[in-house]
Amino acid sequence: MRAQNDPAMSAESHAEILATERALARGDMAAAQRHLNLAIHQGAPEKQTNWLAAAIETAAQLQQRRIRGGGWRGFGVAVVGYLCLSLQQPLGWTLPLWLFLAFLLVPGLVGLVVGQQQRQAHLPGRSFWAAAKSSGWAMGLYTALHLFRLGGPQSDSADLGQELLAGTLSLLLFALIAGLAAGTVSAMVVRSGAKEQQA
Amino acid sequence: MSLYLDERDDGSCALYLDGDLQFDSRDEALYHESLALPALCLARRARPTGLRVLICGGGDGLALRECLRFPGVVHADLVDYDPEVVELGRTRFAALNADAFEDTRAHVHIADAWDFLKSADPYDVVLCDFTVPRRAEDTRVFAQEWYARLAEVLTPDGLLALNAVSPQRVPEAFWCLRKTVRAAGLSALPYRACIPSFRAHGYGAWGFLLASHSPLNASLLHDLDEDCPVSTRQTDLSRLWRGARFSRAERRLEQQVPVHTLQNGCLLPLLLNPGLAPSEQEAAQHPYDLNPLLRAIPILHPYHTRLMVETLAKQVIGTMSALDLRRLVEAVLRRAAALPQEVRTELTRLREFLSLSPMQLQVFGAWCGRLFVALVLLMTLANAIAPDNAFAKGSGAGAGAHGSSASVGHSSFGGGRGFGTGGGRASGGSFSGARGFSSSSRAGGSFGRGGSFSSSRSFGHGSVFSGHGDAPHFTGSGFRSSYGSGHAVDLEGVPRSSRSFFYCGSGGGHIHTYTVVHGGTAPAMAPQTHQSLFVAAKDMLVLDNGDVIITLSDTAYLLVTNGTVALMSDKNPDPLLLLYPDPTLFQNIRQQLEDQGLGVEQAITARQDWLSWVGWTSALLPAVGEDRKELTNLQDLDRRLHTAFDRLGNPPASAAATPPPAADEVELFLGCRLLANGDITIRDDRGEWLTTDGATLTTGQTHPAPRPSPPLLTAALYSILVKLDPDTTAALASDRHDLQLSETDLRALQQDLNDYQLLQRQNDSSYEVDYGTEQIPASDAISRTQKDIDQNLQETKRLQDDITHLTLLQERIQALQPRYKTGP
């Protein structure tokens, strides 16, 4: 239902109804809800406001689902990416190439996938965290499994504690870097989407 | 009390009280001898004559029989409250108990044991042969107060033996009894015996307790068979002490159970509820496991079983699980008009709670499920794509080393041929030959058990190439701290003592121009000292300049370089003699170096991979810095191994493998043999055999006339013989030890075989016996034991042959030593 130019409706409420519809079309649920509240306050017909309220709720649910799904999709991409990297050790790839693949390419792909999925949500912050978590967890798993495999036969029991600590520090640092990279890309994608829409 | 006597066609019988087996005439002697004889024997040590015995329970008279046939027993009181059992003892069991009730020393009292003890005189031995309690009132004669009373009537050196319960089936009750006896002020020694009929009834191994005022320990049971003045029918008293061995975990149970007293009767619940108290650790590991909860429900009647409780509980749990609580509350609320307002409010709150909390749980469960699926997917895919690369199929380093170890283990430089019967068994790696007496080389060394001809310092470290196929773990710290700093290191990273070698020239193009035996042009180079850096095998060292050394003794060694093999002595920088360059030797060294190099390369790769992940932490963590140092050292070793490989050179193309020694010859090292007459012959680089008797040297066809043997050569050969002596001695000692063990095993096996045959004769062939860890039919046990005996006999024969040959060899070596001990 589009906003009708109801003679009983004031110009202000009509403008708010239109603003609500535009915000809804952009996917900006918070703005839509705000405009709808103003429209109700200014005496917009109940029939229209009810319809808009239902539309906002449905769109919000859809958005939530997309945000969640985006995170899992990103995790899947990261898993496949790191699986490919597992074919050989970092030195097998040569260190510069591995650094590029592990900290830029794979997280970048994750960021793109998550950002594209959540582009409509216009929430760069949430998109950042979703991508960061996906990529960070996958990198963490990738690192942990490789360290577990490599670390076992290396050490004396005396050094085991330090080597465990080294492994843990590496795992955290790598997961953090990969997460930051993926999150940044994802947030940039969402933000560019918002700018395009505004333009 | 119900009494049932099972009379069998073969004349044997079994007595059951309240459904519990009391004895089976076929093996009752096992039980009664195990109960009575240890106490009687120990009491007799303190008081050889005039022993007074009290038997509580045991109305069948079988324990009484054991006491009365024991010399020194002058008086025996038997107290039983069941006249029926005593009557059976007098009549039906009279043949079994050897008319014990008719003996003038025996005094039978039909009375309650508590009442009898009120006016009892002191006793040297007290036997408690009570039925296992099935009712709370039966446990009075297992209480602390009861044992305290017994302690009062026991003489200071007296012994109390009591029929306990099964430490295998009801361990808590068994250790509770021991704790109770100890709480009564007595020392208590637990032991157990295997009674086949008890085991057949599911009672498990049966437990006894021996108690006394003075301390008791298991060693008291060691010489029991020697102290026992009577012969036993079924019990092997010499093996009874084995039953007193309980693991620490078993003994620890005693700390967890209470003392059984008249006030706190805990014995019956412990008997009826074995494994009642789950450990805290178990409970922590399975917080949602219902089994600990179910086990906490006590069983208080003998005819109730754990299964009944579990079935009932599971039905209740099933009903509760099927109940839709939300619908129930909704239904109640619909009909709640008549209920008070407060109840309705509470029900409404419950409905709200039910509508919320399961949702949260479902969300949590779904999240966990997704994570788990993702992990499984990740690991499965990775494993499918790169099975050897990803996800813990064993480390590259470990796997590589394994291959290296295994291949080296079979690359015997000696070849294992020659003297005696066991030549073909030499499978261990050694450069120095010793083909002659390789019959004992089961442990993988060339001679005996890893002796070889290496220096005494390196002797015995045969784990690197022991031929067992164990993968080195690369866990030694040698490559971190010892390598290049005065220690040689083996592939495992274990530091070894280093050894210096002082000789003229080295490797790459160097040709020996002078030897002590043949003379020649004096070398242009000044001698230099080189350190051993890497222990490539038990007797093969790689020096810091890349030369390969094969140690023969503390002073003699072989220098293999540039296609030549020189016999060297620490006492002279020039070679004693150039030996025939046997291509087999070069091939084996080359193979060894390749294998070692492969292992080192894999270790390098493993460390590089590791450091590519965690190397950035080396500034923070010293252990990672050490890893870096280790990597540098391994890379250095790899370079040196390549140098050694290059400097090794090749023997002349015309060189052929040295033929094997004759049957009566012993190969000391490749191309050097000890002849039957005591002479030693060495093949020189021209292929001629030089023979020395210690004093003179015959140089084959070139100089057929004997000439004095160079003292340095004689001294080197002497050192090799001296080195051989302890190797032979060690091998002999090891073989003798093995033989001793083998013979002990054989005796035990034969004893077992006799036991099984006896049990099979007394029962049918399907009768099950305890075969170590499992119950199997007696016929199977007999066939298995017979097979074991055959194998044991073969092994014994082989060991005896080995010992004979080694003894002969040792005698020969010892006899020869004075002859060669004339060197400088």
The ordered string of helix (H) and strand (E) elements of chain A is HHHHHHH
List how many beta strands of chain B DSSP finds: 29
The radius of gyration computed from the alpha-carbon positions of chain B, rounded to a whole number of angstroms, is 39 Å
Record field, number of beta strands of chain A: 0
The helix content of chain B, as a percent range, equals 40-55%
Q: Which assembly state applies to the chains in this document?
A: heterodimer
Biggest interface reads: A-B, 35 and 39 residues
Biggest sheet of chain A: strands, sense, closure? none
Question: What do the pLDDT scores of chain B average to?
Answer: 77
Helix % of chain A is over 70%
Main sheet summary of chain B: 9 strands, mixed
Mean pLDDT of chain A: 84
Task: Give the CA-based shape of chain A.
Answer: elongated
- Regions of chain B with pLDDT < 50 over 5+ consecutive residues? 280-288, 388-475
- Name the poorly predicted regions of chain A: none
Beta-strand portion of chain A reads under 5%
Treating each run of at least 4 consecutive H or I residues as one helix, how many helices of chain A? 7
Number of helices of chain B: 21
Determine the N-to-C terminus distance of chain A.
26 Å
**Structural class determined from secondary elements of chain B:** alpha+beta
* Percentage of β-strand residues of chain B: 15-25%
What would a concise description of this structure say?
Helix content of chain A is 83%, strand content 0%. Chain A has 199 residues and is mainly α.
Describe, in plain words, how this protein is organized in 3D.
The complex is a heterodimer of chains A (199) and B (824). Chain A has helices at 11-26, 29-41, 46-85, 90-93, 95-117, 124-151, 157-198. In chain A, 83% of the residues lie in helices and 0% in strands. With 199 residues, chain A is mainly α. In chain A, 45% of the residues are buried. Mean pLDDT of chain B is 77; it is low at 280-288 and 388-475. In chain B, β18 (548-551) and β19 form a beta hairpin. Chain B is 42% helix and 19% strand. In chain B, the strands form six sheets. In chain B, strands 11, 12, 13, 16, 17, 18, 19, 20 and 21 form a nine-stranded mixed beta sheet that branches. A seven-stranded mixed beta sheet of chain B has the order 6-5-4-7-8-10-9, sandwiched between helices. A six-stranded antiparallel beta sheet of chain B has the order 22-23-24-25-26-27, with helices on one face. Chain B is flat and about 115 Å long. Chain B is α+β, with helices and mostly antiparallel strands. Chain B is built from 21 helices and 29 strands. In chain B, α16 (396-410) packs antiparallel against α18 (583-614). Classes of the chains: A mainly alpha (199), B alpha+beta (824). Chains A and B meet through α3, α6 and α7 of A and α15, α18 and α19 of B.
